[in-house]
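Students often ask what a holo structure prediction actually looks like on paper. The answer is less mysterious than it sounds. You provide the chain, you provide the ligand, and the output is a string of discrete structure tokens encoding the 3D arrangement of the protein together with adenosine-5'-diphosphate.
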Amino acid sequence: MTKNVSEMFGAMVFNDDVMRERLPKEVYKSLIKTMATGRTIDPSIADVVANAMKDWAVEKGATHYTHWFQPLTGVTAEKHDAFISPVGNCKVVMEFSGKELIHGESDASSFPSGGLRATFEARGYTAWDPASYAFVKDGTLYIPTAFCSYTGEALDSKTPLLRSMDALNAQALRILRLFGDNSTKRVDITVGAEQEYFIIDKSMYDRRKDLVYAGRTLFGAPAPKGQELEDHYFGPLKTRIAAFMSDLDEALWKMGINAKTKHNEAAPAQHELAPIYATTNIAVDQNLLTMEYMKKIAEKHGLVCLLHEKPYAGVNGSGKHNNWSLSANGKNLLDPGKTPEDNIKFLLILAAIVKAVDDYQDLMRISVAYAGNDHRLGAGEAPPAIISIFVGEELNALINSIVENKTYHGAEQRMMDLGIPSVPVFRKDTTDRNRTSPFAFTGNKFEFRMLGSSQNIAMPNTVLNTAVAESFRQFADTLEGAESFDAAVAKLIKDTFSAHRRILFDGNGYSEKWEKEAARRGLSNLRTSVDAYKAFMAPKNVALFSSLGVMSEVEMRSREEIYFENYSKIVNIEALTMIVMASRDYIPAVEGYIAQIADTAAKKKAVCEDVSCAVEKSIIRRLSELNAQAFSAVERLREAETEASSIANAKERAECYCSRVLPLMSELRAAVDAMETLTASKAWPVPTYGDMMFRV
Ligand code: ADP
Ligand code: MG
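The corresponding structure tokens follow.
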């Protein structure tokens, strides 16, 4: 069966084409204006838009609608209402009003609010975000919304993101105007999120309580083979995986998601999907939908998709690369230009980003900090916990020559009138990219590589947008008042690179040497999530978010609370799962196996008195010792868990989970994993690493 991709693409999305076709011209124009410039829709057109949306959705088989939002749980939330409205005797009509489209109210008491919403005021409000497209999924019209409290504080990750886009747009426009660009109406912030994931057979998954409860394996000795042969990376797709990926592509295309690239990743049973980039808020929605579809479609194939950052110890974990750029009138602002003017503009924007990342290293780190990602960052596979920027050899040399007032000797380079060398023409070359860099310039975009695979990408983009907006704000303030614009720009570029050059690093980010060097340079190194969260409320960070209208101090405080709480909850679930698995599965299984061997030895002796039982004795001794260690670790883990969970203060609780509970979890794991290698396959109660990774 041939598939008509262009016909199916976006078929379930109420996108620009559908709007143009279905809305009266004036209404369409007004809506497009709302999408391009502001966030609130003119109430007089809301009924018309709602009705058109409903008619379209009903044709696509929808019976319900939902306000779709992103509470601070990291996942999405929805509550479905039917379109039906009763008329007369046992009859209904399908109705959907402008009011229902624009505004929703839901009981929000069970969503995390970090103390923002007093329990007596449990209502939360959802408001349509007209800049994100509505869509139909599983018989329901989904309306992307922002979610806030009665008093208007954001209870979601979408609202600050939209505000950060507005802030960056406003400040970037000031810069563009200075370069004589009066035509750009809105600076588009583009994001492409490459998504990594693991696939496992459903029957194996179901037998692993750790995967079911915690999303990652908490036990498991390494398989004889890992990723060392590098035979999986970009290898041919297994039939079953290929069928899953093909279904996934189709589902995503229908949702208007440009799923473009798919391939095997480094670890066995690990894969990646990359879409074509989109405007940030749309990219965020699409990434959340992509993750949802990955899980759902895997199930249809008898598989389970693992989005956890570190499902298996000892092989690579899964991250998400957040490719980020700015564009004006369809032109990428991170494309070094050919004219001297474009060249200077590019260098100024580059300087703004370098400054932003240096000034707000801690926020960048915090935006990717959570319990699951702690198993990757700094663990010799993902970028370290230290933020640095890779710009490549050529740009690095260029920046140094600017700072040091030296002639730049790059290939075919020339000095421009302002004493600033021209930017080299980049070749798109994948071979020399530094994969160890957390934040890398890759020719015409920056790639933020520290994100974990399960996370909502809203916060990292909120931080990035806001920090760059602040650089632009300062730049515009300086330049708008300058006597000579040209001289002021040249000086600003030079001064900024001089002040922030320390954040540039092109070497091996995984090495110990870099950790020492980074410390010498005064770069921040927030090793654990808990360390990172403590830096969130630093006065400079509060000033940043509040002055640009992205988050108030109260909104930040609530997020800080949720960070700590969430961390503790995750480690707590993991600890309890380990206790259950060890006490009820592993320890009894090993006891049973010991009894079996003892039985064998006794039977051997009964038949033949002088037979050697050295093997049985040795196994029994070693396993008994390890089982005693496991038992002791369980007991101590229980105590630590009780102690940690009883701490009232969120920060202190998280600290206790991090410093006291986690090490005991490692100790327990070590004992159990050692027993696994000594116990007969048949006697082991759960699938092994080899089973899970190689039998898909
Ligand atoms: P890789 O990093 O694996 O080599 P690519 O260079 O193909 O992959 O790009 C990865 C991602 O970057 C894709 O999602 C792509 O759409 C996105 N991307 C490309 N250009 C931009 C841009 N200007 N802004 C944001 N994302 C972009
Ligand atoms: Mg990449």
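The CA atoms of residues 110 and 171 lie 37 Å apart.
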